UniProtKB/TrEMBL annotation:
Residues 170-266 form the Peptidase M20 dimerisation domain. Its EC number is 3.5.1.18. It comes from Micromonospora vulcania. Keywords: Hydrolase, Metal-binding. This is Succinyl-diaminopimelate desuccinylase. Transmembrane segments: none annotated. The keyword Hydrolase applies. Signal peptide: none annotated. Pfam families: M20_dimer, Peptidase_M20. NCBIfam families: dapE-gram_pos (TIGR01900). GO terms for molecular function: succinyl-diaminopimelate desuccinylase activity.
């Protein structure tokens, strides 16, 4: 196959977005796209390029005092009658237009066209962000070549509709259990109903007042919710067990340990088992490249409501934020699309930030 990422396409972030969308790359099927990206980057004299699996990394080594990362995932969620791309006026439709090949296009366009950025830049094009963490290209690189990730600041080009979404919330899932005693439903007073006992758990969730926390000017709005409930034995048996699965989204001023302490406080008197936890990430807007980036964007940042790979950078002590042209509300949606003008605006912003000062 001839590489569709020609010099003319690489010079235009819009054409590049479309070309990237039209190379199918559902998670675990990124090889063809990674091959095309790698071939392009290996031909660029000012970059050093490496590959691990279907993750491609390229970096400048200009001896700048600061290094930044621009990162985008190559994979998409499964196709949904939205491949290849189509154009309707100012909108480009198709799987991955918003999440996040328009963001990937920024990184690839800058990698090729900006030989002398004002910081050293490491560009990441990584595999398998949309599926389990064990396949995630950044996660695999962090294990195999952690030195590839060294930087002072990172931008993940995930869809944010052209504003800065800084940091991210943490997430925790737990099972809150109630126990009772089985009895025949005809003699219910001989048993203890575990489903009735769950009422108190649900009341605590219903009256729970979630925190709103402002960190570095970004508001994070927490939430604690029942997301599943399980209980009951048979139509004529008083149930002896009920389990309520709770999802807690917490602001990044709490680490998973503090989040668990809080969760156990809320459900004091009940059995609580944490099944899954991921730390959030502080906004990290104090780093010099971050401040300059915010100045280039010219709009106030907000807190990221959701967990993204910025947390992987934060865990390595690298401040990171999300910035991309796509609308996050359309990610994973059949009608996924991106606005052409948003692609152009964001590309201009990144160029303002990274172009050498005259
Ligand atoms: Zn994404």
């Amino acid at each position: 196959m001839e590489n569709p990422l020609t010099p003319e396409v690489l010079a235009d972030p819009v054409a590049l977005t479309r070309a990237l969308v039209d190379i199918e790359s559902v998670s675990l099927n990124e090889k063809a796209l990674a091959d095309c990206v790698e071939e392009v980057l290996r031909g660029v004299p000012h970059l050093t390029t490496h590959r691990h699996g279907n993750t491609v990394m390229a970096r400048t080594d200009l001896g700048r005092s600061q290094r930044i990362v621009l990162a985008g995932h190559l994979d998409t969620v499964p196709l949904n009658n939205n491949f290849p791309s189509t154009m309707r006026g100012d909108l480009m439709y198709g799987c991955g237009t918003s999440d996040m090949k328009s963001g990937v296009a920024y990184a690839l366009h800058l990698a090729v066209t900006l030989p002398d950025p004002r910081y050293d830049v490491t560009y990441f094009f990584y595999e398998a962000e949309e599926i389990e963490s064990e396949f995630n290209g950044l996660n695999l690189v962090a294990q195999a070549y952690p030195q590839w990730l060294e930087a002072d600041f990172a931008v993940l080009l995930e869809p944010t509709y052209g504003i800065v979404e800084a940091g991210c919330q943490g997430t925790m899932r737990a099972i809150v259990g109630t126990t009772g005693e089985r009895a025949h439903a005809a003699r219910s007073w001989r048993g203890v109903n575990a489903i009735h006992a769950a009422g108190e758990v649900l009341r605590r969730l219903e009256t729970y007042e979630a925190r709103r926390v402002t960190i570095e000017g970004c508001e994070f709005r927490e939430g604690m919710n029942a997301v599943r409930i399980n209980g009951g034995v048979a139509g004529n048996v008083i149930p002896d067990r009920c389990e309520i699965e709770v999802n807690y989204r917490y602001a990044p001023d709490r680490d998973p340990a503090a989040a668990e302490v809080h969760l156990r406080e809320v459900f004091a008197g009940f059995e609580v088992a944490v099944t899954d936890a991921a730390a959030g990430a502080a906004p990290g807007l104090e780093a010099a490249p971050a401040k300059e980036f915010l100045a280039a964007v010219g709009a106030a940042p907000i807190g990221k409501l959701g967990w993204t790979d910025v947390a992987r950078f934060a865990a390595m002590g690298i401040p990171a934020l999300n910035f991309g042209p796509g609308d996050p509300n359309l990610a994973h949606h059949k009608d996924e699309h991106v606005e052409i003008s948003k692609i152009r605006d964001g590309a201009a912003t990144l160029h303002r930030w990274l172009a050498p000062t005259a």
